[in-house]
Structures are given as structure tokens and as C-alpha cells.
């Protein structure tokens, strides 16, 4: 059985790329920014597009729902209003869609500040609707990429899945360095050992277009998304006869 995926707060498709790398089809996505939707349509022409999560009701059933709800009210660069702020408060809409669709797995991405500014408002409501959760803080340098942008990633699964099998292993596995970097600098073992980029985002050679820079700046790195979906596939295979 092939797993399916629905993406919320999709940006330019980082989670979609990670899903595709694990042979998981993205059935639908939801993104309010018109520029980002153009990018999504270009790379995922067969995926159903939705625009405003506040207007989205009962999208097609999928096995996995992912989303990085806005972090502006949580980030140290923001005003610190927390998860009940106008932007980060859109988590409640994501929770509603999870409850409507009842996917087997949920992937959540946000600023590490979430752990100090309302993470209980994520975990407790998920528990109320029947989900258990695990989480990790990861950055690109965890995988050998020269970017220290740390984020918290939470993978939740239905309690029924968690109760299947004997002594279920954790969903998260040991992250692997990108093959692109393996063997190049064998002495690099921790994030502090990996040099930072010489200039702001110069590693990706992004032109000075405001929309493109904003889109890339808000995007989840596909290499991290691929790891998260691989963890889900491995977990799913453990419980599937």
C-alpha cells in the first residue's frame, strides 16, 4: 500500500519534495501566497491546490498531513505573542483539519521557540483527538548542509497505530548526513564543527528578488523533509503485515 500526503502551509513544496523522495504522493496542498502557488503548480501539476486554510473544509483523505504553521508570533524575531497570536494561532485551523481528516500521521514544523511558548497547546489538543507525538530539534547541519537554521519537528500518530505490534520503536531514527557531503569532511561530527556560509544564503545562489528570497527563507529544507517521511515509512512498515 502506498502512503498519501496532504500539505498545509505548503510554501514552495519542501514537504512535497520530501514525500516524493519516499514515493509518497501529495494529493493536495494549501498555500495562501500566490507566488508560492505558482511554484507548487509548476513542480506538482497534478496536486489539488487550496488557498486559505481558514476556508478549507474536509479535504480528501490522506495518510499523512504535514504543515509548518506560521512562526511569527513564536520566533525570537517576532513580537512574542505566542501560539495564540494572529499568525501562529492558525495552528487551530491545522488541528481542525487533522481532526476532520484523521490521518494516520501528522508532521509539524516550527521555530524551537514553540517549545517554550505554547507547545502544550499542540500536544494536549492532539492527545484529546487521539494522537501520540514525538519531536526533535534539527537543523540543516545535522545532515551536512551549511545552514544552522534549527527547527522543531513533531511527528504524531494515531493511538491505534502506536498500540500495534510489540514494543514499538520510536518514529525518529538517527539522521544521516547527506550523501552529497559524506566522505568530503569526515571530521565533521557536530553542528559546531561545520563552517557557516560566507554570506547570507549565498550557498543557494538566490537572486535578489524579494519574493524568491522570502519563499526560500520560509521553506523547509527538502533533505530534512525526506528524513521525516523516511522515518514515517519505516514506522509504518513495522506495523504493516
From TrEMBL:
Gene Ontology molecular function: any one = DNA (cytosine-5-)-methyltransferase activity
> What NCBIfam families would the database entry show?
dcm (TIGR00675)
Q: What is this protein called?
A: Cytosine-specific methyltransferase
Which InterPro entries does this one have? C5-MTase, C5_DNA_meth_AS, C5_MeTfrase, SAM-dependent_MTases_sf
The organism is Pontibacter qinzhouensis
What the record says about family reads: Belongs to the class I-like SAM-binding methyltransferase superfamily. C5-methyltransferase family.
The EC number(s) this enzyme carries: 2.1.1.37
Q: One biological-process term from Gene Ontology?
A: DNA restriction-modification system
User: Which SUPFAM superfamilies has this protein been placed in?
Assistant: S-adenosyl-L-methionine-dependent methyltransferases (SSF53335)
Q: Which Pfam families match?
A: DNA_methylase
Q: Which reaction does it catalyse?
A: a 2'-deoxycytidine in DNA + S-adenosyl-L-methionine = a 5-methyl-2'-deoxycytidine in DNA + S-adenosyl-L-homocysteine + H(+)
Keywords assigned by UniProt, alphabetized: Methyltransferase, Restriction system, S-adenosyl-L-methionine, Transferase
Q: Which domain of life is it from?
A: Bacteria
In this protein, the active site sits at 71
Organism ancestry: Bacteria, Pseudomonadati, Bacteroidota, Cytophagia, Cytophagales
